[in-house]
Amino acid sequence: MTYRTASIIAYIAFFAVVLALPLVLNSFWTNRVAIYLVYSICAIGISMSWGYAGILSLGQGLFFGMGAYMLAMSLTLAVPENNPVPQLMLLNMEPNAVRDLCCVTTGSFLWIPFRSVAVGMIAGIVVPCILAAGIGYVMFKRRTTGVYVSIITLAFALIGQLLIINNQPLTGGFNGLADLALLEIGGFEFDPYGPSAYYAVAFTLIAVILLARYMLTGRIGQVLKAIREDEARARYLGYDVENFKLFIFCVSAGVAGLAGMLFTLTSEFATPSLMATSLSISMVIWAATGGRASLLGACIGALIVNFVGSLASESATFQPVWPIILGLLFVVVVLFMPNGIAGIFKAFIERNGRTERLGETRPSGKTERSDKSERVQTELTAREA
Amino acid sequence: METFVIGLSIASILFMVALGLAIIYGTMSVINLAHGEMVMIGAYTTVLATKHLGINIYLCLPLAFLVTATFGLIIERTVVRRLYGRLLDTLLATWGIALILQQLIRIHFGLGLFGVEIDGLGSDLQNVPVPAELQQAIRVFGANIPVYRAFVFVAALALGAITWLLIYKTRFGSQLRAVSVARNTAAACGINDKRVNMLAFAYGSGLAGIAGVLVSGFKTVSPDMGTPYVVDAFLVVVAGGVGHLLGTFASAGILGEVQSFVATWANDVYGRTVLFAVVIFILLFKPQGLFVTKSR
Where are the transmembrane segments (chain A) (predicted)? Predict the structure, then answer.
């Protein structure tokens, strides 16, 4: 069995399990698993930018949080009591302010477009993309690389979080936006504890995986890998390195924004803690555990870490030890499994494939694609174009 | 004037934390996100020592240095040493270590699980008694200056001077500089670069521990107090120029004052926001930092 067949089987098995799960889960666990699948989408975003292009963004939570806030704003306005002006603004407004969204507090006019849920849903993807394009344009055009990208994105996420906490009258401050209406599209209501929201998340996840795989196994993916391995060489070969990086950074931010919206859909709140440094770094760890350069691996990593985490937090003995286990997991993954679960899976399949071939009388013509030959392949494809 | 002095004391703490980080990052290219936890451990050393041993805050300075340097040594020997040359991986692994250290304090080093609780640990907030002579204020140029803030400033200057002497005037210092410029060449010349790494990591952690003692005098001590420091201090290091003592000193001064003035003029949140904005601006337009080390 080659690695390619094995991974296709793995993808199909994963999709089947994800789609079948609500049949056996109660409503509480349906909701929990839906949230873990949302985190999986985040991990895919990380895998796209970090695993394929080598851009480690520690500000992914900023885009995730923005996506969550965009939809939460629409769903806040969808509650009847919040019309024409949300309760949180009434609590904080100046005594004689006009009770209209245009001018009840400074900046409240920003909420006006969100009266339409459709606008909120589009903004949840587009706004993080535009923001990422702005940050990425300045960063990559200045040829900022490596760890400086991580630090700058981290600083942006911190600024975002502080600004939201600080603008209490406009954003709900530290408490964020809660008491949201359920999302309703064309008369169909998504219930966070029922299969409807679960399937919304599950189908989005599958679509994101398939689209990302289609994109990254193609030419773009090859060029991005070349950039990850040796940026200067890719540039000398005539590729516009900055634009490729900018592109994948924006796509990754859009994916995070999409995940943020689905988070609002399943958890019914949005708070500044979604933009916290710890969540951004956790996302990186999910991807690293599963395998940073594998979309499915990153996805499964997020599921496993979160699932075990929530099991641990339910038992009184394990709850205080869990952060320590999580910390050890960071260290162990970095030290001993740089390619994560997917790396182990790949090594296993390849070892088995080799013994099978040794047993055959006539060796098949296929050669293994080890990391080295893959890199050579990348360079060859890069040179051909 | 008061704002200026508050800025100076913020800058002093930043400088002490950043100095350790700069030595570690500059020499070994390791991003130590557990550095903030060294500040936290320094602060807890003070809490425990004042509570159980009854010693005052001055004696805690060398004690905390030893304790955190030991922690640094252990971290270097067990984890960081395997990760040289993998910059982004050091960042992730040390974040894991930071999580572990925070949680160890919360659960009383694991004893909490067996019902044993040590006074001074746990997830509660702790306070450290400050000696009477440090609680007063003196009047300079018609402004009230708390003695404690002045003490912090003097301590930072002294540590800066000691570190400067250590790096530029001792045998260890010249080895350290040799390793940071050209590791392989230095090793080929007979310098034990692994030992240099180890000691530099321990010394850097020790500096953070001292900063922790001083922080504990004017801030409440809690297990997660360290994280903001490591982010700020790292920004100071990169903004000042990596491997440049004077650059770290200057950028800590500038950023501390910026934060203090904006915070007084608007509020704390804007203080930090402007701080980050300034650093992003510096990094985008001078990626090498304010001061560039010339090297061939």
Answer: 7-29, 35-55, 62-80, 117-140, 147-165, 197-216, 243-263, 269-288, 295-312, 324-349
Reported CATH class of domain B2-285: mainly alpha
Closest in B87, B95, B102 to A330, CB measured? B95
Average pLDDT, integer, range B105-119: 68
Compute the nearest-CA separation of B156 from chain A (Å).
26
What average pLDDT score do residues A158-174 get? 82
Q: Is the pLDDT confidence value at A76 over 90? A: no
Q: Are A67 and A258 in contact (CB under 8 A)?
A: yes
A46-60, A102-116, A197-211, A319-333: segment of lowest average pLDDT? A102-116
- Cross-chain Cβ contact B96/A166 below 8 Å: no
Task: Output Rg (C-alpha) for chain A, integer angstroms.
Answer: 22
Instruction: Tabulate helix, strand, coil % of chain A (nearest 5).
Output: 75, 0, 25
The four Cα atoms A87, A91, A92, A97 give a dihedral, to 10 degrees, of 80
Q: Which residue has the higher pLDDT, A292 or A67?
A: A67
- pTM for this entry: 0.83
Task: Point out the residue among A144, A288, A326 whose CB comes nearest to the CB of B284.
Answer: A144
Residue of B nearest to A167 (CA): B269
Q: Which residue of A has its CA nearest to B242?
A: A148
| Average pLDDT of span A294-321 | 84
Nearest to B269 among A166, A328, A338 (CB): A166
Q: Would you kindly state where each structural domain of chain B is located, as residue ranges?
A: 2-285
**DSSP character at residue A185:** E
- Tell me the residue type at A104: V
Please tell me which residue of chain A has the smallest CA distance to B236. Answer: A151
* Positive or negative: CA dihedral B190, B195, B197, B202: negative
